[in-house]
């Protein structure tokens, strides 16, 4: 597997940064890793040697990632380190979806992409993933009664949602309301709301990259359902009035637009310009305006689509989030190669 000298240089540079300014984000690293990485391309040689074998150290973590996001259908309590045909197929599908070079191997490019912040809703196999019978991933707008045009929303008490964040959420709802041309939203108490917003602290290792997710809850002894939108309470969120987005921060409005889109019936899109793209790319840390395809998809669910109206092109913020993606990438690479 050929990797450019430029990328090797950048990886070494990122390591130096990680051992200084980014050390707080990668507590599991030690100075010995730096010597191992920089000595005679040890990291590259070990990756190459492992890919020539059917069993790869720490492949189980990658399998868990692929399973959590719908690429592997294995219903098991733990994953082994064997690179079997099912895993190769899952890697290829992931590479195809995200426009990466399709090899079926766990390349640096794949590890880098897996390290980017992303939505917790699976990309595929939405029928899997919940053991609780009254909880499900969003699958279209069938969760609320047919013909219902007004959805209520509320904020989780004690979730410390600031007034500025509430305004962002209300503006996001308004933007989607205009796009559907049918659905409107009204604020109410949290317990009575159709859509519930809240901040939570996510638990497992895969969720290190998750910044928000959405699911549907069916209330017990009742036909009523509610849509739950959960934001990561540990993130350093950026609001529209902030002057700059730092490398370790996540734009709140971008995540809000994406999650509301799920509740209105949209699946993930693999168009990098779409607000429904699963991953926050370093080149597009802020993405809140609907593309032509976003408008078309939502209006096909609710109204007759008119291609001459309602089109607002996406934009990219000039800041960079490479610091965040770099720290996560290094975490993946080190855990994968040297644990």
From TrEMBL:
SMART domains: ZnMc
Cofactor(s) the record lists: Ca(2+); Zn(2+)
Binding site for Ca(2+) 3: 212, 232, 235
Sequence positions that bind Ca(2+) 1: 235
Gene Ontology cellular-component terms listed: extracellular matrix
GO biological process: collagen catabolic process; extracellular matrix organization; proteolysis
Record protein name field: Metalloendoproteinase 5-MMP-like
